[in-house]
Amino acid sequence: MSSAANDAMTPGAAGGEEGFISSRRIRLYLSIFATAYVLLFCQAIPTFIDEAYSYNLATDKSLSHMFSALRGGADGSFPLYALLVYGWAKLFGSSEFSLRLNSGIFVLLFVWQSSRRLARHFGPALAVLAILFALADGAFTYGTLQARFYGLVIFLFSLCFWSTWDLLQSKTTTHRRQHWHALICGLLCLSHPLGVVYAAILGALYCLFSVALKRFSFSNVLAFLGGPLFFLLWLPSFLHQRLVNPYTKNAWWCQAWASIGNSRSSTTNCCLQPARPAFVFMSLRVGTSGEGKQPPIPLRLPTEIRASSLKRCSFFIR
CB of 201 within 8 A of CB of 278? Predict the structure, then answer.
């Protein structure tokens, strides 16, 4: 048999390194495209009336006055976004483009982090298709790039989802990973009222799929308590916002109850949209799991199949 056939049959390190470089190059091109996308649409999307609330937060005279206004129900925002947009305005100004770019940074972080994790588990081709599919959605573009907290919420949910994915890998998880997960859940719960719902959904999905995989760990479940513990810091102000303030106590609860069961309502869709892909991806995790470590879902022929095919073809190479 010729040396060319032997080299082709032997899966060396060069092929793996070549694939790694190709994957990094694809993610680099995707990041460049996402940056151009963010800069373009930060200028192009029409002004949304709620962006005025963010402008008021960003240009407030002091942090104490801003938190007093939040507690009184001036915006309905949670404290994490208010702190970020306030600090951002002090560094980069409070123009419409600047405040939208603050949201765009979280979109870029979402693209980078999601493409990296999707490429690792499902291959670069599926990662690119998934990111492009998300960026092509008009509701995603308009919602995440306006000068509001939605880009922050999507990014934190993505971090929390992949952290939950990591907890599903085995029963024995490092304390560092558990502390990281508790922190992410806490920040998610402080970013938006629905962040509490998202953290609860991920906690329920972890319990469901960890039992199915026989990898349930009570210490991992405790990591999800970071969300409620962080939320306790804002709970008195939240209760004042929603139950005491006469301008918000009726409207918020009526809208929430009216949205239940209405598949077209924005509140119901906001609750269900992150839960659907999370359920699908974790179902794939169960479907592709085996005894021992989990192989990634292959998007090309496995090495042993390619080697056996080359063995059959080597007769013609002699």
Answer: yes
Q: CA nearest 114: which of 168, 162, 151, 180? A: 162
CB 42 within 8 A of CB 101: yes
Each residue of 12-23: pLDDT tens digit? 444 455 555 577
The per-residue pLDDT for range 168-212, each reduced to its tens digit, is 987 778 889 999 999 999 999 999 888 889 999 999 999 999 999
Residues 6 or more apart whose CB falls under 8 angstroms from that of 247 comprise 73
Number of Cα atoms under 13 Å in the Cβ half of residue 31 = 16
Q: How far apart are the first and last CA of the chain?
A: 5
Helix, strand, or coil here: 245? coil
Among candidate residues 79, 74, 86, the one with its CA nearest the CA of residue 234: 79
> CA 157, 84, 250: angle at the middle one, nearest 5?
70
Q: How many CA atoms lie within 13 A of 58 on its CB side?
A: 23
- Both structure tokens of 119: 């490429």
Q: Are 149 and 78 in contact (CB under 8 A)?
A: yes
H helix count then E strand count, the chain: 16, 0
Considering only CA atoms, which of 80, 79, 76 is closest in space to residue 53? Answer: 76
- The string of DSSP codes covering 95-129 is -HHHHHHHHHHHHHHHHHHHHHHHHHHH-HHHHHH
- Calculate Rg over the CA atoms of the chain: 23
Residue type, 156: L
Which tokens is 172 given?
A: 């024995």
